[in-house]
Amino acid sequence: MSDRGFLIYVDGQGEETMHMMVLNTGFGSIISAIQAVTNALIRESSIGARSSISGSPVVATYPTVRQTANLLFRDSTTGSTARVYVPAPVAGIFLPDGVTVDPSTITSLITAVTAQVLAGSGNLVDTFVGGQLEATRVGLLNSAPLF
User: Fold this and answer.
1) Is the pLDDT of residue 15 over 70?
2) Residue ranges of the alpha helices (H) in 3-127?
3) Domain spans of the chain?
4) What confidence tens digit (pLDDT) does each residue in 56-81 have?
5) How far, in Å, CA of 112 to CA of 106, rounded?
6) How far is CA 62 from CA 20, 22, 45, 93, 132, in A?
């Protein structure tokens, strides 16, 4: 059995984006692992009450949800994949090129994702393939097909 979970992020400029994942049994430690590597605030999720937003806009290298770290994971049994998106990523997760995600900086997130996120095959992802910075439009980002 799987759950679809969503996270709604807001950046310091007030722009929002939603990220959906297909999960084995809820978010577990994924929320705290993502919060550690994003400059955005998680405003709402499908597993909790709406949070109030407080604080000031973040002054950072990647302050907007339009800049996203796109992380690719794989189910090594079938080769099926899932993507996890980190909007407004913290600059420290990248290699010196500022584009490629350094896996050694996101070990908690990798552990959380491989324990909970399902690939299109329906199996848990078990391998982090890689990640990179992308400019995205604000809107819905999915880690698996919606149907």
Assistant:
1) yes
2) 30-35, 107-116
3) 3-142
4) 556 688 888 889 999 999 999 999 99
5) 10
6) 21, 26, 22, 11, 13
